[in-house]
Amino acid sequence: MLTSLLARVSGALFCLGLLLAAMVSSLVFGHIPVSLDMLAASLVDYDPGSLEHLVIRTERFSRTMTALIVGAGLAIAGALMQTLTRNPLASPGILGINAGAMFFVVVGATLFSLTSPSELVWAAFTGAATAAFLVYFLGQEAGRGISPVRTVLAGVAVTALFVSFAQGLLILNQDRFESILFWLAGSVSGRDLEAILPLLPLFCLALLVALLLCRQLNLLGLDDEVVRGLGLKVGHVRLLIGLVVIVLAGTSVAMAGLIGFVGLIVPHMARGIFGTDHRWFLPLSAILGATLLLAADTVARLVIPPQEVPVGVMTALMGTPLFLHLARHLRKVS
Fold first, then answer.
1. Which end of the chain is more exposed for a tag (fewer CB within 10 A), N or C?
2. Which of 294, 324, 316, 326 is nearest to 25 (CA)?
3. What does the pLDDT read at residue 178?
4. How far apart are CA 300 and CA 47, in angstroms?
5. Which pLDDT score is estimated for 176?
6. Confidence at residue 144, expressed as pLDDT on a 0 to 100 scale
7. 3 state DSSP class of 235
8. Where do the domains of the chain lie?
9. What's the pLDDT tens digit per position in 70-100?
10. What is the pTM of this model?
C-alpha cells in the first residue's frame, strides 16, 4: 500500500499512464488495425475517404468514450456501495442493481419502443432504485440492521429474478430480441456519441457529488454513534450516496447493458494500492475502472476475429477468479 504523498502521486500518475495506454490501444487495435501515425492523422486532419479514419471517427472513438465512462461509473458505484454497506462484496452487479436497471430497460424497449440511451436512462434509474430498495429491505436482520450475508443473498436472488423476467419478456417478443440482446450480454460497441452526450451532464454531476462526499465517506467507516457525535447526518449522507449509486449504475446500464465485476473488483484493487482514504481511493477507482473496461473491450475484439466477444462476457471471465479469491480470503479473515 502506498502511504507517502510522493508515492501516492507517483502511483496516480502511473495509473493515468495505464489509462492513456488503454485508450490508445482501444483506438488502434481491432479487426481493422490502425497505426499510431494514422490515428494521429485522423484526429488532426480527418479524411472522410480513408477507411481507417472512418473507423476511428465513427466507431472506435465513441466506443472508447463509452467504455471510459461506464468503467469509471461502475467502479465508483461499487466503491460507494462497499463503503455504504460496509460489505466488501457489495457492487451494483452483485446486489442486483444492474439487473434491475437492465430489466426496466428491456421493458422500455420491448413494450414502449424506447431506443436511445437518453430515453432508456430513466427506465434504468427506476429499475436500479427498485432493485436497491428490494435488496435493502430483504437484507435487514431483525434488531441488527443490514446483514452483509443477507444482503449478498438478497442481491443474488434479485438478480436472478430480474434477469429471468427480462429473458421471459424477450421470448414473448421475438421481434425486439436482437435489438436488445447486447444489453443482456453487455457491450460498448455501436453507441453513437450523439446518443451518449445527453447523459454526460447527469453522469458528471453524480461523479462530482461523489468526490465532494469524500470526507463524509471516510467518517462512515466509524461507528454510527461516533459519526453522529461528530455532527454528520448519517441518514442524509447515506440517502445521497444511494442516489449517486443509482444514477451511476443506471446511466452505465443505459449505455452499455449488463456488465459485471468491474464495480466489485476495481475498488479492492484501488484500496489495496492507495488505502481507504476516499480522497485518493475514489478517483483512482474511476481511473482503474475505466482502464479495466477499455482493456477488456480491446481483448474482446482480438480473441476470435473477425467476431467479437461481448465485453460483459470478458469482464466475467476476468472477474470470476478474482471474486472467488476475494471470497476465500474474506472467509479466512473472518
1. C
2. 294
3. 66
4. 28
5. 66
6. 65
7. helix
8. 62-329
9. 999 999 999 999 998 888 888 998 889 999 9
10. 0.92
C-alpha cell at 23: 485508450
Residue 209 CB neighbour total at 10 angstroms: 15
Which residues does residue 146 pair with via DSSP β-bridges, in sequence order? 140
Percent of the chain's residues with pLDDT above 70 = 94
Helix, strand, coil percentages for the chain (3-state, nearest 5): 75, 0, 20
CB 61 within 8 A of CB 284: no
Instruction: Indicate the helix (H) or strand (E) that contains 306.
Output: none
Give long-range contacts, CB 8 A cutoff, 24+ apart: 29-35. 29/298, 29/301, 29/302, 30/55, 30/60, 30/298, 30/301, 30/302, 31/301, 31/305, 31/306, 34/60
**3-state DSSP assignment of residue 80:** helix
Handedness of CA 64, 66, 69, 74 (dihedral sign): negative
Tell me if 102 sits within 8 A of 184, measured CB to CB.
Answer: yes
Answer yes or no: CATH 1.10.10.10 is held by domain 62-329.
no
C-alpha grid cell, residue 203: 453522469
The Cα 246–Cα 223 span in angstroms is: 25
Q: Quickly tell me which residue has 452483509 as its cell.
A: 148
Specify burial of residue 51 (Cβ count, 10 A radius: 0-12, 13-18, 19+): exposed
- Model confidence over 87-135: pLDDT tens digits? 888 899 888 999 999 899 889 888 888 777 778 888 999 999 999 999 9
Cβ atoms within 10 A of the Cβ of 4, count?
8
Q: For position 168, what pLDDT does the model report? A: 86
